[in-house]
Amino acid sequence: DTEVTQTPKHLVMGMTNKKSLKCEQHMGHRAMYWYKQKAKKPPELMFVYSYEKLSINESVPSRFSPECPNSSLLNLHLHALQPEDSALYLCASSQVRAVGEQFFGPGTRLTVL
Amino acid sequence: KNQVEQSPQSLIILEGKNCTLQCNYTVSPFSNLRWYKQDTGRGPVSLTIMTFSENTKSNGRYTATLDADTKQSSLHITASQLSDSASYICVVSNNAGNMLTFGGGTRLMVKP
Q1: Do the Cβ atoms of A41 and B41 come within 8 Å?
Q2: Shortest Cα distance from B70 to chain A (angstroms)?
Q3: Which of A31, A85, B12, B112 makes a 20 to 30 Å CA pair with A78?
Q4: Torsion angle of alpha carbons A50, A104, A84, A86, nearest 10°?
């Protein structure tokens, strides 16, 4: 299995909702990443988990809360988002942090109303 | 500051034609350079990854070159197909264990 899966594919939520994005990989990778991508822009790094521990938080607002329950799963909990948070959220994994190729998931298209 | 610049920003070509995309970087120290293809609304898919010692790497109709002295890379697409329409992103990694630096991408449209 050489893919990263993400659910849901699309998500529409109001500013008072709480929702979660999920990411899964079964390649034995020990580094997992969350990126945010606005239209026609490159992905922007949000969080990095290395060996299930948060190693990088790129000054992301607290309304985004990552969680890594085990080495195969990565969640992104969303609460009280703003319309400007609407974007494509990409998950990626690599063998170890910053080494080797990053494999990206298909993304979750998030719309905040 | 680590930067990756890509040109052109967008490109339209006819099906069957060749094209070359450019990437200049100032990431230091350099570890590797990757080209990704990203379809609209989808995650990036790796085309090639090159280290300092590699000058050329091919993946089907895609050929990437790297000149580590001038810090330039190119992606050449041969005999373009409609399915090549996508954004092509150049990504550079340094060897300090820090994260990737993404270029702004080139949006390629192949027309029949």
Answers
A1: no
A2: 23
A3: A31
A4: -130
SS3 of B64, please? strand
* Cβ contact, residue pair A106, B104, below 8 Å: no
Contacts of A42 in chain B (CB under 8 A): 89, 102-105
B44 in A contact zone (CB under 8 Å): yes
Cα separation values, A71 from A25, A26, B50, B97, B102, Å: 8, 9, 28, 20, 26
Report pLDDT digits (tens) over B48-100: 989 888 999 999 999 999 999 999 999 999 999 999 999 999 999 876 555 78
Mean pLDDT value across chain A: 91
pLDDT score of B1 more than 90: no
A96 has pLDDT over 90: no
Separation CA B112–CA B109 (nearest Å): 10
Contacts of A61 (CB under 8 A, 6+ apart): none
